[in-house]
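Q: My labmate handed me this sequence with no annotations at all. I'd like to see what the chain might look like in three dimensions before we decide whether it's worth expressing. Could you predict it?
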Amino acid sequence: MSRPARHLLLACLTGGLFLSACDGKEEKKISPLGITPEEETEPAAYDLDQIRQAGELIAATLSGPDTYYEYKGRGFGLQFEMAESFASTIGARLRMETARDTAELFRRLKQGEIDLIALEIPESLMRDASLRFSGVWSSGADSTGKCRRSWVVRNDSPFLAEALDGWYKPETRAFLQNRERKRLAPGGGVRRRVRAPFQNRAKGIISPYDASFIRHSRAIGWDWRLMAAQCYQESGFDPQAVSWAGARGLMQIMPETAAHLGLPASQLHHPEKNISAAARYIRELERKFSDIPGRAERISFVLAAYNGGTGHVRDAMALARKHGKNPKVWNDVAPFILRLGQPQYYNDPVVRYGYLRGEETYAYVNSIQERWRRYRGAVHGGTAGTAPSPSRRNSRGGFKSRVLSAEELEAKYKEEEDKADE
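A: Here is what I predict for the chain of 422 residues:
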């Protein structure tokens, strides 16, 4: 059903258009939309004013690394970035959807399900007089020599087309493309100051945040050393870490996820609160994968979902099932996590969430599992754990060597940095 039709249906249901026959008069026949046949008309055009009133621009594209994909619950990709930029200029939020192919994009646009096609369509495919090029465009080459490619809108959305044409400049693409390239370049992943994987191996202290890991892992039934291993993978124990995707803090929580968990944006870099929120999120993910039998097996699925998103993990499970593998065994599913970076797999009909940076998610799970194994071999204490001793006697010197708290260690690091800058 088109957007104008949906709005009309809502108006009919709330406006009392269903007539009663209690007055003895013949009841009028009404359509499913609540209007009489003689009143039925074509849906009104849905143009810029209606988009602004609704506060939402609906665009659609194809899934892929250069168009649109989701990572940690946020959209990325050049076509997404440009559509989001345009939506902000007209005071609307963007809702990006994906289609299987260009034929589906054209059909959905003509039926009013979307407002624009955020994909640069070759002019050789534009044979419908009810549609027009508008906004983002580029030129390339095809069998005819030159070929213009552009976004597409309906002809009955002239003001939207005008706004798109006025907004887009070649510099817009260049700026967003350059930002995306820098973000994904080697070394552009997470801005962090990586610390040693052990603060004091001899004393069994992994990090200055061990007490927090112990406290919050106990609440969710995890081994605190596993949470420590995940934290090291996420941020290198740097509470000020920020990723290319916008994730923040020790456990690299996205602002949108933080809002869902009740963690204010101002507290994302607070070590204790960041770890606490991550534990709540892990518990949510465990519930979403409650169909995976056994905690040991489920952990890999939860870690993969923490990094790549629940939907992508479910897609990999669907692919595993389709190819005769066990979708509830990580070793059977992991190869399909990798393959979600390949078009023949992320465009498969059983895949709902499209492209995934599969190599990253695959390596993420493996790295954490390996570090967890090392931590288990070096540090005693499992699911419940015990907090590291705040101080212990030095038998040779007779003085107390105190283990610094997280806050004291942060102050110490800052002091050292300040001295280095002088």
